């Protein structure tokens, strides 16, 4: 299976109002089917995005710099109240039951707005013709009950360039992702499902970026020695669309140098296909990758399908891996509704051999009719932790 690649210029032409190039439009729609349909890898790449290469060169080295900040600076960016969903997080996840994952550090932020609550309240007052007080009170209660979802960004004052770099790269990825979702919308329309996926992302202020620093091999005593334990565990993204920046490998020697490629052939992104093949996917450094998540799978009635994936880091000493992902998502109360004419099984794809082979929690076990995105998000996270607890 080959990675499907489309050009930014073709996307731009597709999205241009009044464009009558039917052959171009159909070619891109077919590309969406090859990438995200029932036989696809669940990922495509977009090449030629203006400014992307420069943004990548500016952002990814900062992942290493964040990890090297003094402990007091990192502590100022840790939010236990937000369940480590914003700011710095290290050793707060478990990929092996009972063993903290110290192999990587993460920095989380919303690249669209620094304070989601303030932005939502401002929008409420701008759009309301009546007294918004009652709606505001209801929103405040929702926010208090789900603080990790709504927590504001935290950035270290000693690395001021981090905020701008995350914001600019995140907004670039979000912009192109909305264009990809427009083509997805047309693909769904051609298969009898009417859902405006582009509008969902365009209207949402909710978005989560994750800047990742993978420490050098054997840097921590809890780092597993071999086999599948070295992988960042198999999972499906539960959001709408995930934008991926091709990873960068850096030497730990000073002055730090960027490696032209991964130092060993096993490192990188792997996808478990629906034909039960494990496929390594290598994104060119000038391309943005976009993976379909379970939310778009449900909203498209299963026409677009998420695929399990994992990351294997390099075993080469003296090398770190820097990465960046942007999770494009609806807002908390967005309804996770099945499209007319589609069934629960259409949406959940219960017979997906990849999910069965990896023993992943099915969508059907987490999603229920009438559920909103925030509830689906919460139960997905809770289920992941319960799965770890049960494995102990």
UniProtKB/TrEMBL annotation:
<dbReference type="InterPro" id="IPR027443">
    <property type="entry name" value="IPNS-like_sf"/>
</dbReference>
<protein>
    <submittedName>
        <fullName>Uncharacterized protein</fullName>
    </submittedName>
</protein>
């Amino acid at each position: 299976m080959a990675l499907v690649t489309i050009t930014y210029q073709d996307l731009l032409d597709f999205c241009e109002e009044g464009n009558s190039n039917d052959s171009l439009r159909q070619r891109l729609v077919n590309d969406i089917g090859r990438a995200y349909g029932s036989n696809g890898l669940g990922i495509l790449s977009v090449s030629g995005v203006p400014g992307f290469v420069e943004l990548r060169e500016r952002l990814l080295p900062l992942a290493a710099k964040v990890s090297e900040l003094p402990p007091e600076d990192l502590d100022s960016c840790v939010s236990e109240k937000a369940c480590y969903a914003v700011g710095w997080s290290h050793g707060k996840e478990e990929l092996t039951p009972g063993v903290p994952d110290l192999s990587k550090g993460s920095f989380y932020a919303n690249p669209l707005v620094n304070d989601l609550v303030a932005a939502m309240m401002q929008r409420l007052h701008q759009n309301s013709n009546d007294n918004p007080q009652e709606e505001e009170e209801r929103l405040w209660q929702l926010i208090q009950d789900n603080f990790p979802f709504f927590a504001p960004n935290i950035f270290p004052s000693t690395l001021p360039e981090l905020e701008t770099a995350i914001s600019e790269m995140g907004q670039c990825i979000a912009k192109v992702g909305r264009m990809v979702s427009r083509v997805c919308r047309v693909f769904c329309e051609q298969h009898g499902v009417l859902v405006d996926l582009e509008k969902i992302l365009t209207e949402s202020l909710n978005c989560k970026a994750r800047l990742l620093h993978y420490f050098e091999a054997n840097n921590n005593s809890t780092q597993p020695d071999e086999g599948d334990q070295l992988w960042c565990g198999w999972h499906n993204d539960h959001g709408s669309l995930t934008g991926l920046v091709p990873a960068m490998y850096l030497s730990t020697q000073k002055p730090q140098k960027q490696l032209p490629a991964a130092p060993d052939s096993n490192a990188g992104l792997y996808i478990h296909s629906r034909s039960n093949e494990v496929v390594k996917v290598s994104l060119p450094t000038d391309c943005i990758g976009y993976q379909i998540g379970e939310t778009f799978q449900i909203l498209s009635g299963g026409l677009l399908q998420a695929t399990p994936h994992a990351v294997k880091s390099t075993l080469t000493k003296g090398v770190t891996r820097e990465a960046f992902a942007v999770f494009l998502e609806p807002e908390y109360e967005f309804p996770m509704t099945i499209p007319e004419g589609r069934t629960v099984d259409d949406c959940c794809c219960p017979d997906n051999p990849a999910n069965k082979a990896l023993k992943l929690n099915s969508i059907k076990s987490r999603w229920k009719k009438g559920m909103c995105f925030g509830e689906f998000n919460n139960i997905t996270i809770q289920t992941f932790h319960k799965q770890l607890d049960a494995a102990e």
